[in-house]
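Budget justification aside, the reviewers requested a transparent look at the raw inputs and outputs of the sequence design task funded under Objective 1. We therefore reproduce one unedited record. The lines immediately below are the structure tokens for a 173-residue chain.
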């Protein structure tokens, strides 16, 4: 096992989320974000901390450097740490509808999903129902079909192949 660490300077005001998502795939313990990703068949545990306003530290534990680099890149994308929101801020800080919120929290950003298939699957779950019901479905999918990391026991989102092979009755329950 190797541990890769990367220090990143955010391109715009950034604040690490203090809470994980409703699906419980991302956990925050002691101010450190924890997430299990799968690089193919390789489990990668990613941790993210923000020791200073202008520094975000990513760490990934994997069997090889390649999967660790991939997982850090995916979490950088999901958290938006490399996004420069200055053009958005400049454009909307005086907007009559959202300007007040933009000025109050210029670092506010939506957290994305680190894997494109997870973003698609979760969007389908969230259509036309309440957020808590969608999160309940997502948690059941993770508990039933998500892959467990042999080290630490964290679970990841189910892969496209696993969801495709699942019986419709299981997905509807």
């Amino acid at each position: 096992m190797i541990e890769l660490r990367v220090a990143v300077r955010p391109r715009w005001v950034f604040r690490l989320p203090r809470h994980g998502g409703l699906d419980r795939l991302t956990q925050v313990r002691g101010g450190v974000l924890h997430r299990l990703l799968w690089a193919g068949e390789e489990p990668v545990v990613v941790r993210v901390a923000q020791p200073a306003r202008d520094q975000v530290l990513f760490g990934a534990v994997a069997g090889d450097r390649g999967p660790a680099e991939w997982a850090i890149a995916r979490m950088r994308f999901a958290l938006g740490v490399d996004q420069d929101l200055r053009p958005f801020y400049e454009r909307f800080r005086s907007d009559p509808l959202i300007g007040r919120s933009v000025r109050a929290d210029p670092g506010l950003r939506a957290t994305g999903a680190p894997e494109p298939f997870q973003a698609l699957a979760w969007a389908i779950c969230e259509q036309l129902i309440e957020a808590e019901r969608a999160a309940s479905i997502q948690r059941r999918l993770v508990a039933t079909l998500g892959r467990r990391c042999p080290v630490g026991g964290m679970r990841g989102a189910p892969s496209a192949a696993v969801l495709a092979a699942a019986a419709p009755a299981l997905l509807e329950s």
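The chain has a mean pLDDT of 93. The helical segments are 65-79, 86-92, 99-104, 116-126, 131-145, 160-165, 168-172. Computational costs for records of this kind are itemized in the attached budget.
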